[in-house]
């Protein structure tokens, strides 16, 4: 399990420049769709047996946009502050 976890962690680090570039492209669009979806998170450690709720926020271009893209942002709550921070500087 730890090997698979290490691979996933390394993939995340290696793909970060791609995710940042994709976010930049998405935030250049005039129209975006945004939505949050609840997900269950398993917490590690003996004292954390109860699952916790998190949210995957999706920011997508429209179907009519020549650039078809979606970027996902994981957060621990539904707070609009997360969207506000993600969209900081966006002019749409």
From TrEMBL:
Pfam families from the UniProt entry: DDE_Tnp_IS66 (PF03050)
Q: Which organism is it from?
A: Acinetobacter lwoffii
* Source domain of life: Bacteria
Q: What residues does the Transposase IS66 central domain cover?
A: 1-92
Q: What is this protein called?
A: Transposase
The record's section on InterPro entries has: Transposase-related, Transposase_IS66_central
